[in-house]
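Final report, section 2: Outcomes. Of the targets proposed, Histidine kinase is the one most frequently requested by collaborating groups, and we therefore present its record in full.
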Amino acid sequence: MRKLFIHQPFFRILSPIFSGVIVYLLLLLLNNNVEQLHEQFLGEELYVCIVLSYIVQELSRALLLIFEKLPKRKSSFLNLLLQVIISLGISVLVVTLLIILYYKYIVGYSASNEDIITFDSIFSVITLIYILLFVSHRYLYKINSEKLEHEELIKQNIEDEFHQFKRGVNPHLLFESFEALIILMNQNLEKTDEFIDHLSTIYRYILSNKDKQLVSVKEELENLHELENLFNKLPYRNIKIENHLTSDFLVVPGSLLFIVEMIVRNTIISSSIQIRIEIEEQDEQFELRYETHDKINSTVNSSEIKEINRIYSIYSEKNIETTLLNNQRIVFIPKLTIKK
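The predicted structure is given below as tokens.
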């Protein structure tokens, strides 16, 4: 609400000046004193009108802030009608009191009923216009905010679909597997079917679970074993995964596959280096522990897994974290459960 233009200092300072001048001109027209414009435009009456405009607008603004904090009725029309009636009533009361005091102590005689009605009518219109400005601008602000939120949601959905597509297709693993498959077809045709089975199982699991939010860790580990077999059939890969988990819990689909592949991608390619990954269990999390042989220009860190962290943050207050201890890197992953 504070973003609405009626609350900006620039508007609050200049608006009463313009409205005060308009009130002064209207009073001159109503009293047939337009010729005074040529004689004394910057007279005492002009300053009185500006001060009254400032008081009325600030009063209207204060009432708007008060009404925003009060409990609302179900009908928005009744809320607006009640707000207009109360604001006009208070505005008339304040203007009447100020005009009586001005005529009595400054001008030197009592104000006539005609003068009071004239001032009250003009400043009531100003109060009404001020309320309508607020309501219309707030409505436009609400509509624009909803459109921006809708556009942001569409953008977020597109980004999520894109990231999900990247995780699902995984072009690096796919093309590397195709290259290895071409070589395998020329060297050992009998092992080709087994290699295709591993590859198809992994992608079938990834694509079939793309609409699922969570899966069992046992199901994830079964497909992780398929990824292990697939990597071991690629050139210069030597991977061993040791699972020590005893309990069953939930994980984000494909998260373990993504992390293990990330470990493999950031490790020096050599058939003499075995990537031995141990999966250990703790109370509220489990960990992937392996000895590091990082490439010179890349390494596994928290920024590499920020997309999975973003998904995990929906289900857990803890993030996936990495730490380096005695030449071993440990990836901590929170356990996910569904509260009944």
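The chain has a mean pLDDT of 80.
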